[in-house]
Fold:
Amino acid sequence: MIGFWKKIYAKHDSVKAYSLLSPALILIILAMVVPMALMLSFSMFTQVNMMEIDYTFTFQRYIDFFQKNLLVTLLIKSIKISFLVTLITLITAYPVCYYIAFYVKKNKMLWLVLLTLPFWTSYLLRVFSWKIILGTKGVINSSLINAGILNEPLTFLMYSETAVVITLTHAWAAFALLPLYVSLEKIDFSFIEAGRDLGLSRFEVFWKITFPLSLPGVIGAILIIFIPTVGDYVTPALLGGTDGRMLSNMIQAYFGKINNIPLGAASATIMLTTVVFITIIVSNVTKKLTQRLT
Amino acid sequence: MNEKNNTLLIYTLLYFGFLYVPVLFLPIFSFNDANYMSFPLAGFTTEHYEEMWSKRNLHKALWASIKVGVVASVISTTIALFAAKAFARYKFRGQKISYGGIMMPFLIPEIILAVAILIIWINLGFKLGLVPVTIGHTLFCTPFAMLILIARIEGFDFSLEEASRDLGENAWGTFFRVSFPLYLPGIVAALLLSFIISFDEFILAFFLTGSDATLPMYMWGQMRFVQKLPHVLALGAVIIVFTTFIVLLAFWLRNVGQGKVKKDIAVKL
Amino acid sequence: MNNSFIQINNISKYFKEVKAVDDVSFEIKEGEFFSLLGPSGCGKTTLLRLLAGFEYPTNGNLLIDGTDITALPPDKRPTNMVFQNYAIFPHLNVEKNIQFGLRKLGLSNDEIVNRVKDVLSLVKLEGYEERFSNQLSGGQRQRVALARALVRQPKVLLLDEPLGALDKKLRDEMQLELRTLQKNIGITFVFVTHDQQEAISMSDRVAVMNDGKIQQLSAPNELYKNPKNIFVSDFIGETNFLKAETKSSDGEYINISIEGLGEFKIKNNLNIAANSSDVVCSIRPESMMISKVKSDWDICLDAKITQTSYLGEMTRFYVQAKGINKTITVSSQHFDNKSFENNECFISISLEDISLLNKK
Structure:
């Protein structure tokens, strides 16, 4: 019998691969899939009072969500902020990656390591450092007042949507830089030379050759920035004020002081499905647009 | 290759500024002799650093973060090592789905992972604390560790393992005498980076710790009080220096033995 | 000597639908230098890996020295392998690489030291013990790989295109050296190569493979002189194929009609059926004679040279012969392209140099 199993093991790559993968798959199933399935079922229960939950299935929580103007507004605002962050991060990071991929000749890896280094320092601290900069008594305001340019601090800097967008753009830069660089680095420079040789202008070469070839990086960056930032909690909590509040802050409240776990679970489910849905649309539109360009 | 492009160079340097300057304000103000973080600087002091010695809660939180970080990074790197090997070595049915599944925690907003684990943990009747945080961190670190290890293993010449089997070693002997020593730089890099990720992670800890604070949670608690801010700055500065060192070490290790890149980095760092 | 030292019985190996090795059976003798020759993808490497234990057959079984090794893992087999890229462990020096496989053999320290010393002198690598793989040349790496495998004193040494990565001159030297080495130590070598010259010059016997099947298994000179089918004839050396038809046969001899040449009676070594048009004739370029004047050979044709290429030790002529609708290649050591006026020449063929082959 042991011989039989040994033979099966030796003969099939799939068997070997899955036995190697099993710890990872078990972890994913037990710590992610099952908990998320349970979260989904909780979104169909009802919180009776602080301690009790009614376990009869109902879609009422989803109706509740869309009947509460605040939640819908927060969802839309979260998506809008994420969208802006993704767009700005991509646009600002692209030229940097382009420069490193095509103009830097020596020590490219060093440039890249330096670019991603700030990302590894604590997320909380990076967000906090923007509080130091943008705060009412922060770096910008105190400098301007000291220089005599202002009498009153600029209040819109802090506790606003703008503050949240700037901070998130800074915090998620590495997630745009890495995929963009990887896809640009793969482009054979002779393609660009061939484009020029065939009579395209620099501008045309970029839109017809470079950009379409870097598309996997662009889509990758959209995916890994847009989805997680929708669920960001720290930045809006520290810098957002009421203006910059996002859906996550509300979800946290449902699990915390408001104590309505089913509605919190429903909000989380709605947030995740909406953002995944939008991401699929955005990446497909980007692909289509690029196809039209070329 | 292209000639020079000064416009892009200047832009790139400005972008570096945008990335680095905000982070640098922490260490600057940590030496400032005032409770407010504003210009002009009030004078040099190391008092905020000295203050850290006396904070017992800080020490407790630091110890909690180290415990969670060590356990989570060791488990996730081990799990990721097996998985990376499977993806780099074999072609099999369901490869893409398995890969996507394992990468998921990297993509899903952390708050959702946190909430989901919170619900199941409470309903199983367990107490919140460092255990569920460690589970969450292991889940979250595994995809990172796997990416690093796949990059290492992909360039690996598998005929070395076959040679070892051919020379009479069994599967375990082959792993310990050939694969492990050659993967080692990648493994250490994955361990270090997973540790850093866990050490800095806030959301999962925020939802799952209950009363045992980790270091980021401790800082979060202190950030609300203006008079306590300076020593958070000092702590932050220490953390930044410490992570930078570990990350540079990890990047260096990751590139050891990978041809030209290795020399490049080793010389420069 | 054991004539069936390695037995390969009805071995098949399928990768999904691809039949890499398709129902192959043959035997290898003890102490033989045996080559598996064929184009890439013919199944020769898969067959070698089946012998080494890196693949397991879909069907069939393998015996070495009377023991069934079909289900044994690589580490339990009496074989050792020299890998195509040598697979020298980069984290170990030459000495540690060679010692690697000795640990499991239960030898005393003295024995280990002696064996390593002996094998190093055998492959002429004394003084390189401390070097690492990246400090060695291609030829030296190849020697380390050889030493590492031989030090275990295997019953069979498997070699997977070990000379492919070396440059031409070094390759020729190593061919000679490998052959001498094998004769001296007397163990069985199974050598995989796509280089026909390599296989022919080194081996006692060669199995030519294509599409997962053995096309012909014989001594090197037989392969060249008496190819069994059109594939072997084409793969080994160069040849001209001419359209032909068989007529009547009297067992040993057969009457054939060759396009443009006429009817002849030749030996029917392969027992080819009479009255068939599914046959071709093969004539080697170097078996034909090119001359300025007519000869008295069995066949002599008027021809015109269309192109020549000078190859150093010989010149290759591309000629258009009267009645043949195809360019024929002839090689000669005695002429160069300037010897012919108006490119006119005669091509002579001897009947015994015409081989008759089945098309399929």
Summary: Residues 68-293 of chain A form a domain with the MetI-like fold fold (CATH 1.10.3720.10). The mean pLDDT of chain A is 85. The first strand of chain A starts at residue 46 and ends at 47.
